[in-house]
Design brief:
heterodimer; A: mainly beta; six-stranded mixed sheet; globular; B: mainly beta; four-stranded antiparallel sheet; 11 strands
Chain lengths: 114, 113
Amino acid sequence: KQEVTQIPAALSVPEGENLVLNCSFTDSAIYNLQWFRQDPGKGLTSLLLIQSSQREQTSGRLNASLDKSSGRSTLYIAASQPGDSATYLCAVMNYGGSQGNLIFGKGTKLSVKP
Amino acid sequence: NAGVTQTPKFQVLKTGQSMTLQCAQDMNHNSMYWYRQDPGMGLRLIYYSASEGTTDKGEVPNGYNVSRLNKREFSLRLESAAPSQTSVYFCASSFYKGNQPQHFGDGTRLSIL
């Protein structure tokens, strides 16, 4: 059964720092991996989707990498800002009968201090 | 620019009561999903509809039913609410079930006493 783990559970950094959020998964037979952002009391916003054949995706100050063989993904945030404060969730989509079903990690709560 | 709209935003029920959570999307998406989010558990898929006219169970379907009313709307029904169903419920949609990002509503916060 696929399991997704995100470490650390919480992270506090000063404004301007570059930071890395980690995601690991137990079954490397994934279809894609997605990173989401969740603000308090809100739904999830899709940030980046990496297909299984890709190594990384970039959007603005965000860069996500994928290493299927080791079961790891990282989300790199450059020059962090207080507006980046949110919970970041990683989710994988498996091949097979449950294709299309996302399996989520529990998230990393990021706080960027001014 | 509504995206995915969920109603109601908050609801308190007594054990044994029934209710339906409503979800509508205006992005012409084919696939729709219902998740629940619980502290320490993350998001878990309850039911999904890969396309209009089809529905399938997800990871935690017990105690719930769904209806894909049309391409836009996907409802979740609790027939006899239990305290264990206290949660935040999210509806999501995507163009197709598979290699497409999912778009989420803002959630329904449901408390069952």
